Amino acid sequence: MRKKELLVKYILGILSTKERQLLDLWMKESPNNALYLEKLKKRNYSERYQEYKRSHRNFSVRQSGWKHVLVQAACWTIPVLVAFSLYLGLRSDKEIQIEPGTSKAILYLDPTTKIELGNSKEFEWIRLNRLDMVAEKQGILDYHQTSSRQDIHQNNLLETPRGGEYRVILEDGTRIHLNSQSTLSYPVCFEADNRTVELTGEAYFEVAKDPKRPFMVKVNGVTVRQYGTKFSINARSPQNTMIVLEEGSIGMISPDEDVRMLNAGDVAVWDRVHSTISITAPESFEAYVAWHRSRFVFDDQSLGEIMENLSLWYDMNVQFEDEALSKIHFTGSVGRYENVNILLNAIEATSSVKFHIDEHQITVMNKY
């Protein structure tokens, strides 16, 4: 067993008798080893572990069933706190840190006029048609009860880069959380008979109720229609668009006007190539909407999928030294605003994978 795992298990109080003997031998090798262990104990890791334990957040790995994946995966589940401990005390202080994304976006008032938005704590107004119409503060763009009093026939476009997110409140009160590398096109003022927006990328919608005006999202050739509910749309793939309905019901309208209805808890996938809509009702859809609630939740996801999601949020590039490593599956949860090293360390501690970070390039390699 590696020294890292021995130290972490000692801190968490889960050493076996054999492991304790190995740790004692290591401590006898040098007086500095005992001093180092005492230093770790003083950081009060046990209290952090209890906090994570109460939240029941675990991180585990399983070996893929693919024949060509020759990876020896660890057989035990380690709480995410293991990664937290490694991150704080067991990794080099000189290790490159890749920070999480922040609230930032570009607002296009028209094709030639753009405004860079950030996470300023100061309240600011954005002028439309020579009037102060849009309020912007702390990562939220607010059109509600400002532009609704004006008859402005104009579309705006909100664009988030890699490593960015932004929230917007439309003039009807609908709230939209735009994930990284996504765009949302919407009118400053909705029409009298409908509320239509267009999306690329990923977003979470909390639609204001209006029984007289359907809210419609046009995305990848399909239209989502409803009158007031909560749902998320992931349209990152050019072929498959995923819609997850959290409350109420919505209708999905294909280009040939075929309408499929979704109920709360349903997950629908629009296959643009084959023009088909498939609907399932999983036991839990937390993994699909966790990003909106400031977490990453992976439910038996491949490392390739995990790293693709992380690359967008942490604005980093990922390369697999061995493509077989991308097929290993993980289950776990970690905060979305944590340093990426926390998650990477959790994966390293529970598998035969290791990561090399060079500025914003992460290389995934075999550990052994």
From TrEMBL:
Domain Protein FecR C-terminal, chain residue ranges per copy: 295-364
Coiled-coil spans in chain: none
Sequence ranges assigned to domain FecR protein in this UniProt record: 158-250
Name of the protein described by the UniProt record: DUF4974 domain-containing protein
